[in-house]
TrEMBL record:
<dbReference type="GO" id="GO:0016339">
    <property type="term" value="P:calcium-dependent cell-cell adhesion via plasma membrane cell adhesion molecules"/>
</dbReference>
<feature type="domain" description="Cadherin">
    <location>
        <begin position="45"/>
        <end position="153"/>
    </location>
</feature>
<dbReference type="GO" id="GO:0007043">
    <property type="term" value="P:cell-cell junction assembly"/>
</dbReference>
<dbReference type="GO" id="GO:0005912">
    <property type="term" value="C:adherens junction"/>
</dbReference>
<dbReference type="InterPro" id="IPR015919">
    <property type="entry name" value="Cadherin-like_sf"/>
</dbReference>
<dbReference type="InterPro" id="IPR002126">
    <property type="entry name" value="Cadherin-like_dom"/>
</dbReference>
<feature type="domain" description="Cadherin">
    <location>
        <begin position="154"/>
        <end position="206"/>
    </location>
</feature>
<dbReference type="GO" id="GO:0007156">
    <property type="term" value="P:homophilic cell adhesion via plasma membrane adhesion molecules"/>
</dbReference>
<protein>
    <submittedName>
        <fullName>Cadherin-11</fullName>
    </submittedName>
</protein>
<dbReference type="GO" id="GO:0008013">
    <property type="term" value="F:beta-catenin binding"/>
</dbReference>
<dbReference type="GO" id="GO:0045296">
    <property type="term" value="F:cadherin binding"/>
</dbReference>
<dbReference type="GO" id="GO:0005509">
    <property type="term" value="F:calcium ion binding"/>
</dbReference>
<feature type="domain" description="Cadherin">
    <location>
        <begin position="1"/>
        <end position="44"/>
    </location>
</feature>
<dbReference type="GO" id="GO:0034332">
    <property type="term" value="P:adherens junction organization"/>
</dbReference>
<dbReference type="GO" id="GO:0016477">
    <property type="term" value="P:cell migration"/>
</dbReference>
<keyword id="KW-0106">Calcium</keyword>
<keyword id="KW-0472">Membrane</keyword>
């Protein structure tokens, strides 16, 4: 008998005179309820979850909520009472035991140091106690970029030379600053801000 397939049966019974083969009473119904046992493990809605969180987020920032279900009877015992825990991904992330909400657990996580994290979450029934059944899911968390790195020139001084006969627009030299941020955060523009030749030279960003 599987309660998850059919939880209740109705049987009809009647006392009959064996010799006369006639009923001795009206038919009676008997309801048999199948009592639940913990025979179903928790199952997550997705085998793999994908989530993003900005780098440098405060500790406790919500990343994503994972949800598992249990086919056992939630009204009887603890067979369907789930508790979430994190198996892989510490100390960077944590999970709320009752809700399955994954949160950041370390401050100042830096995308430029590590961009992707592989987290494994477990859901265990029986309230998380020994003897409970469990299921797991994977969560791929990516740190999204914020503009937290200024552009830097590889050299503090550049030596360039140009002929005094050069015509306006002639190239004198090139320099390139590096910015480890990505996307728009990593785009660099150049301007001349000081110097005794400000009126003689111009700089353009290619």
């Amino acid at each position: 008998l599987d309660r998850e397939e059919k939880a209740q049966y109705t049987l009809m019974a009647q006392a009959v005179d064996r010799e006369a083969n006639r009923p001795l009473e009206p038919a009676s119904s008997f309801i048999v309820k199948v009592q639940d046992i913990n025979d179903n493990p928790p199952e997550f809605l997705h085998e793999i979850y994908y989530a993003n969180v900005p780098e440098g987020s405060n500790v406790g920032t919500s990343v994503i909520q994972v949800t598992a279900s249990d086919a056992d009877d939630p009204t009887y015992g603890n067979s369907a009472k789930l508790v979430y825990s994190i198996l892989e991904g510490q100390p960077y992330f944590s999970v709320e035991a009752q809700t399955g909400i994954i949160r950041t657990a370390l401050p100042n996580m830096d995308r430029e140091v590590k961009e992707e994290y592989h987290v494994v979450i477990q859901a265990k029934d029986m309230g998380g106690h020994m003897g409970g059944l469990s299921g797991t899911t994977k969560v791929m968390i990516t740190l999204t970029d914020v503009n937290d790195n200024p552009p830097k020139f590889p050299q503090s001084v550049y030596q360039m030379s140009v002929s005094e006969a050069a015509v306006p627009g002639e190239e004198v030299g090139r320099m390139k600053a590096k910015d480890p941020d990505i996307g728009e955060n990593g785009l660099v523009t150049y301007n001349i801000v000081d110097g005794d030749g400000m009126e003689l030279f111009e700089i353009t960003t290619d």
